[in-house]
Each structure stands twice: as C-alpha cells, then as structure tokens.
Write a structure and sequence with these properties.
This protein folds into 2 domains: 38 residues; 51 residues, Irregular (HU Protein, Chain A). It has 3 helices and 5 strands; from the N terminus they run H-H-E-E-E-E-E-H. The strands form 2 sheets. A 3-stranded antiparallel β-sheet has the order 1-2-5. Strands 3-4 form a two-stranded antiparallel ribbon.
Length: 90
C-alpha cells in the first residue's frame, strides 16, 4: 500500500474527504518527525512506539575496494510494534 492508497482508505473509514485525510496524515507524520528530532518518543497505545536510536561510530569496509572506512555516529528513527498490532498480524 502506498500513501495515496492509505489516504483513500482513511477517507472511507472516517467518512471524510480525501483532502482532509491527506492533511491529517501529513500532520501526523510531520508531528512525529518533530518530536523525534527533539529527542522525544511518540507512543500510540496498542499500535507502537516511535523513538530515536543512537548508532555508535564504527569501522566499516568499502565494498568495492575492501579498504576500511570510518562510519560516523548517527541517530536513526525506530519503531517498536505494540501488543495489539502484533496480535492483529498473527
């Protein structure tokens, strides 16, 4: 499912226009990104938790030459599914 298909499903389920569903989806994803950028977490009970994981600096290898390269420390978004979501997909 892509974004436009999700918007269509949301509009049908909530009995709202596709434009309103698109604005709601965009607002949700924007707010999650803002909270994560500030270092917070977003918990949607039953669905899951969005958070930031810190990756330490490490040494990797250039796949073309095999030479070692330094990979910088970084922050990456993470999602942990909640119990209700896990149960729904089994």
């Amino acid at each position: 499912m892509n974004k436009s298909e999700l918007i269509e499903k949301m509009a049908d389920a909530a009995d709202i226009s596709k434009a309103a569903a698109a604005r709601a989806l965009d607002a949700m994803t924007d707010e999650i990104a803002i909270v994560l950028k500030e270092g917070g977490t977003v918990s949607l009970i039953g669905f899951g938790t969005f958070s930031i994981k810190e990756r330490a600096a490490r040494t990797g290898r250039n796949p073309q030459t095999g030479d070692p390269i330094e990979i910088k420390a970084s922050k990456t978004p993470s999602f942990k599914a909640g119990k209700a979501l896990k149960d729904a997909v089994q």
